[in-house]
Specification:
The protein is built from eight helices and two strands. By secondary structure, the chain is mainly alpha-helical. Strands 1-2 form a two-stranded antiparallel sheet.
Length: 251
């Protein structure tokens, strides 16, 4: 009986990602899970794509610098001012900062609001948020091997912004039994995945919606002029193979 069940398990539907071969995840009211395994479903929750890895800060840095230069040179552009104004209001109206320890179980909309509040308390200027949003879109457009879908774009922008002020940090002194005072620190970080990243990214993209079509071609051109072409445009470039997780015995 066990052998029959094992055979049926092996013959069931498999993950759609090439080379994975794991069984698909349980639907859980989300049809997309009928085509991907648990690992790749979780990967999409974190990065916005089942297969494309998240961009590192180093990948984004040259595009952010070029975006900041473009915004500085076009400070009087009405679309740039409109984006600045919308994000400035978003930061001002975000409410108090709720410690990361209190966010478990709260709605994605509330957690995105708290993320904006943390950015405000960290004195992050709206221009910085606009530059990151535009830079992310420019990088995805410039990278020949990127996943050019909206969800990946907004999640990557949200994660880059989230890194600017992501956690709650506390420090105090506690008294030991022998009367000494010992410093104690606490660092708590909210999860940078799931619907909260979509809500945060949607707010950023909405503010920069009109500006993106004007700024992105100029940012890509400036990036090529200052730093050279993206590696995907160099001769001999090939799409890097996706790294799959190590398979456990019996999987």
């Amino acid at each position: 009986m066990n052998a029959i069940n094992h055979h049926q398990h092996q013959a069931g539907p498999r993950c759609a990602i090439l080379g994975c071969g794991r069984p698909v995840a349980a639907p859980k009211h989300r049809p997309v899970q009928q085509f991907h395994c648990v690992y790749h479903v979780q990967r999409k929750a974190r990065h916005g794509s089942h297969w494309h890895p998240g961009y590192r800060a180093a990948d984004l840095k040259p595009y952010v610098k070029c975006a900041e230069s473009w915004l500085k040179a076009n400070a009087g552009h009405p679309l740039a001012f409109a984006a600045w104004q919308e994000l400035n209001v978003k930061l001002a109206m975000a409410g108090p900062v709720d410690p990361a320890m209190n966010l478990r179980g709260r709605s994605p909309a509330y957690r995105a609001q708290v993320a904006f509040a943390r950015l405000r308390e960290a004195n992050i200027n709206p221009d910085r948020l606009i530059a990151i949003c535009l830079a992310t879109a420019a990088l995805i457009e410039d990278d020949r091997g990127s996943h050019r879908v909206r969800e990946f774009r907004i999640v990557q922008a949200a994660k880059a912004v989230h890194r600017l002020a992501s956690g709650t940090h506390r420090s105090w002194n506690i008294e030991t039994r022998d009367g000494r005072m010992v410093p104690y620190t606490l660092h708590a970080y909210p999860r940078s995945s799931g619907l909260v990243m979509r809500r945060l990214g949607e707010a950023l993209e909405k503010a920069c919606e009109g500006l993106a079509s004007v700024a992105i071609p100029a940012i890509i051109a400036a990036r090529r002029h200052r730093y050279g072409p993206h590696p995907s445009h160099l001769p001999g470039w090939r799409q890097a193979p996706m790294k799959l997780p190590t398979r456990r015995v019996g999987e």
